[in-house]
Amino acid sequence: MLGPEQDAPSFVHADWGGSACDIGLYSSRKRHVRESPADRSGCQLAFQAVAKPTFKTPKGTRDILPGEADRQRALVNTFGEAARRAGYGHVMTPMFEDLGVFKRLGEATDVVTKEMYDFEAKDGKRYALRPELTASVVRAFVQHRPLIPWKVWYEGPQFRYERPQAGRYRQFSQVGVEALGTDDPAIDAEIIALAWDFYATLGLRQVTLMLNSLGDATCRPAYLDALTAYFNDNLSLLSEQSQYTLQVNPLRVLDSKRPEDQAVIDAAPIMVDFLSPETGEHFAGVRRVLDRLEIPYDISPRLVRGLDYYTRTTFEFTSTALQGSQNAIGGGGRYDGLAADLGGPATPGIGFALGVDRILIACDEEGVFGAPSSLVDVFIIDVTGGDEAAVIGSQLQTAGIATDRAYDARSMRAQFKVADKSGAPIAIVIGEDELAAGTIQIRTLQGEEREQTSVARTTLIEELKKRLT
Ligand code: AMP
Fold this sequence. Notes:
binds adenosine monophosphate, Rossmann fold, 3 domains
């Protein structure tokens, strides 16, 4: 027998149940975010005595549980719909590629040198989990040679071996678009507008767009010469890391966030002063269309971004609702040389990737785009044994009404408890009397006044649709 304080199972959050609740805490931490059904269903598991799990998610990864995962799916669907309306088709590429595909991103970038999950497979070939999708999409373009312009959108997880912290994971999700086959400045502005409008559709207001032109092969070399000379003149003022970066890729010194580098970077020559007439005109064209679309932007002459392939237009979206170093919620630019680099015909291209995980944190901070308050419209309470719930559930789902139910022939009271927790706005109740009379009770579960009405079973779908619109 257990003494009062001896080895009694302690009623703590089960690690697996608890993590569902943790997600709930995480999303309801912010004032405006509604509690999701997952928070509740997760918390049903909370008071159980369980041992520590043997396995947990690898460092830098996380389980995204129902509720939060449904919210993420809703975000992806919203993005996909917006992209489809702008003429972008959905593309899906493998999660791993020949290592060489990603090596083309630039041997001097952290993503390639330090952060890639590369491995040798059983066939002896070297592959890498994709750290981003542009290279995969351009590889697909080169492989399939579709008609141009080829406008596609994508979504899915990316993998980078980074130091995990809030808003920075080793597996994270992106949505994005790529457009290959034209360098019309109108498409640069089109994709920037697509991202901008998408953030607005989610309800985000604290988004800033930073814009730059990185020039092209005709004018960038002169700029790089000037930049390198300037940094060499000020070498002793630069951090040790930036002195090293200067040897490999002078442009990336501009990306340093180290405080000791900032004064030197602030006074460095800027690319826009070196643009050739053609690239200058292209940049002006992009800005002109953005102005017409009334999309505000800051010209950010030191914006270089993380990957080496960018040419001409580059841009980044930040959220002022997020903390400093993790405040980028998306970015992209032109990569006119990448298709040729991957063995295809010289083809201009432009795209962006938006960080889904971080966008959702920004949504939490701004109190917008919360988790759906319920996954279902109707909760079925069947006190005749449970078969009726199966039949009615199937009929309602076929008619497009999302339903859930209780199991194990529980009492009416117990079933109502589950119905309340489900967050469904309506319950329908079927007992022996209703079964005999061919009726069903419809009961509202939300709001001050809980109404209950009896309707003929034959009109149930119609009655529910009226109430759900
Ligand atoms: P990039 O592919 O580096 O241009 O990143 C595009 C967007 O993906 C960034 O603006 C972030 O929102 C997001 N992102 C990049 N790396 C991570 C990461 N390790 N964890 C979470 N989000 C990320």
